Amino acid sequence: MTSNENCDRAQKIAVPSYFHPGSLWDKLESGYPTVQIGIINPNSGAGRSSNPDYVQQVQSSQQLGMTIIGYVYTSYGRRSLNTVKNDIDKYYNWYNVDGIFIDETITSCSDVSYYSNLYGYIKGKGGTVIINPGTQTNECYVDVVDIILNYENVYSHYVNNYSQPSWVSNYPASKFWHLVHKTPDISSMENAIDLSKQRNAGWIYITPDTLPNPWDTLPSEAYWDREIELAGENDSPPEDPSDQKLLQKSNSPG
After folding, report:
1. What is the pLDDT of residues 150-171, one digit of tens each?
2. Sequence-ordered list of residues with C-beta below 8 angstroms from that of 115, at least 6 positions apart, any chain
3. b or e along 108-132 (b: 16 or more beta carbons within 10 Å of the residue's beta carbon)?
């Protein structure tokens, strides 16, 4: 399927929801079912002990139908597999998450075995696997992930400097997720959504928030509501046949 064939298909929103349980999570949940994925990140990872606020939040969001993912980082393959797996175990034991978001990933095919190992480990727990190189990666990673975050940068770069390898258009849009921050207003957000559909991104999140942490809040009500509306137009679920859990949730009653 080409990107042009995907450009009018509905997207789902996935948010790096790096904020404490409370009103912002309520706002996040209000976007379901277009908002499908939230990521918990209690302390740049699972932390040293279970946090009861997150336990309750994960249960609430899962009961609604959302997929809740735990954040781990790999330091571009420098962290040992055992250390990363220990973090993964904490998320499952403490929070009963639905999968893992693997941050700081490498793009070189010479290192794909490291991530293939983690993929098998997470899949053994029945989880969804997302990797974040933050940029375009190599096609060798397609088979060791469910979703690739292949764009994470500011709006001006997205408009003026975006490029992607030709192989991306050979896969379902549900394989790809774009994060666009420092998107200043609703008009710019609308443009970013339109571009993301043309660029074969089945998962999206646009925000006006900025560095050093553009994922610590959500947009204003008007911005957020419009983003949900645009992303969900021509509503259809993600197409990745390997991720039946997300397909089932997308088709469940809201």
Report:
1. 999 999 999 999 999 999 999 9
2. 74, 102, 105, 106, 131, 141, 144, 145
3. eeebbebbeebbebbeeeebbbbbb
Q: Which CATH architecture has domain 3-251?
A: Alpha-Beta Barrel (3.20)
Tens digits of residue pLDDT in 211-227: 999 999 999 999 999 99
Task: Show the tokens assigned to 163.
Answer: 């490029």
Tally of CB atoms within 10 A around 191: 17
Distance (Å) of CA 235 to CA 8, 31, 34, 189: 10, 14, 9, 19
Domain boundaries, the chain: 3-251
Residue 243's Cβ-count burial label (10 Å; 0-12, 13-18, 19+) is: buried
Contact 76, 104 (CB under 8 A): yes
Give the C-alpha separation, 169 to 164, whole Å: 9
Q: How far apart are CA 224 and CA 63, in angstroms?
A: 22
Place of tokens 């990745």: 240
Q: Which amino acid is located at 15 in the chain? A: V
Instruction: Give the pLDDT confidence of 53-94 residue by residue, as tens digits.
Output: 999 999 999 999 999 999 999 999 999 999 999 999 999 999
